[in-house]
Design goal:
about 35% helix, Rossmann fold, about 260 residues, alpha/beta
Length: about 260
């Protein structure tokens, strides 16, 4: 049985991860972690997740062995817990968004000691979309304009979403564009005619939308749109659990959801 720890256990995502781990006969939740001073410290994680008493208490330290830790917290917390995982030989699955270049590089260095999988979106469908968007951009060529639109709930702290940025990154890799040069964020005033290689990025924040992403390919006379809509956070949770089962069998290294899904880049 695979032993799972969850960091950020009392957040929206963390609680659902705990609930689905409790339901999975192949998994056992052994640790539920939250920040120092969190009001739920000491409470039973099963009660918080709506599963009844489980005798797994919320703690601020990882004081038991786990095979894999799943993290949906904040960029700073993710890096801190990655360091702890490396010291304790615990694999890491991180779905935190907003990680900067330095933070990702830190996790890459730690992956020399433990298996690490970092993805801005754990959804199986979205990770297929990454690959399809890149292929379509390459096939359609410069005759088609590319725009990326993402919509999330009003409480999301970062913009654009990590998923939207990953879509832009994959498209840039496939077409020879530069992420820091060819991607612009929204538009205002007189912008002039759109440059050939430009990718427009647009972030919408509205109500309780879990996550919608659309890539628009438009040419003179026709338009193609690829859209993914998440109906429930369990979409991301199931992907993260699938990733945890995958890296539990792997040696140290940096992995992606493409590895989990056997998607050839």
């Amino acid at each position: 049985m695979l032993k799972i720890a969850v960091n950020g256990a009392c957040g929206r995502m963390g609680a659902r991860i705990a609930a689905l781990v409790f339901e999975d006969p192949q998994l056992k939740l052994v640790a539920a972690l939250e920040r120092h001073g969190h009001p739920s410290l000491g409470k039973d994680m099963g009660t918080i997740a709506g599963c009844g008493e489980t005798n797994v208490k919320v703690t601020s330290t990882l004081n038991t062995h786990a095979d894999v830790l799943i993290d949906f917290s904040s960029p700073e917390s993710t890096v801190t817990i990655a360091e702890i995982c490396a010291k304790k030989n615990v694999g890491l699955v991180a779905g935190t968004t907003g990680l900067n270049t330095q933070q990702l590089e830190k996790i890459r260095r730690l992956s020399q000691h433990i298996p690490c999988l970092v993805s801005p979106n754990m959804s199986v469908g979205v990770n297929v979309m990454f690959n399809l968007a890149a292929q379509m951009a390459q096939m359609l060529g410069n005759d088609f304009d590319i725009e990326i639109v993402e919509t999330h709930h009003r409480f999301k702290k970062d913009a654009p979403s990590g998923t939207a940025l990953k879509l832009a990154e994959k498209i840039c890799e496939a077409t020879g564009r530069k992420l820091d040069k060819d991607v612009i964020y929204c538009r205002h005033e007189i912008t002039g005619e759109k440059p050939e290689n430009q990718i427009g990025m647009h972030a919408i924040r509205s109500g309780d939308v879990i996550g919608d992403h659309t890539v628009v390919f438009g040419s003179l006379g026709e338009r193609i749109e690829i859209t993914h809509k998440a109906h429930t956070r369990d979409t991301f949770v199931r992907g993260a659990i699938r990733a945890a089962k995958f890296i539990a069998q792997k040696p140290p290294g940096m992995y992606s959801m493409s590895d989990v899904l056997s998607i050839q880049s």
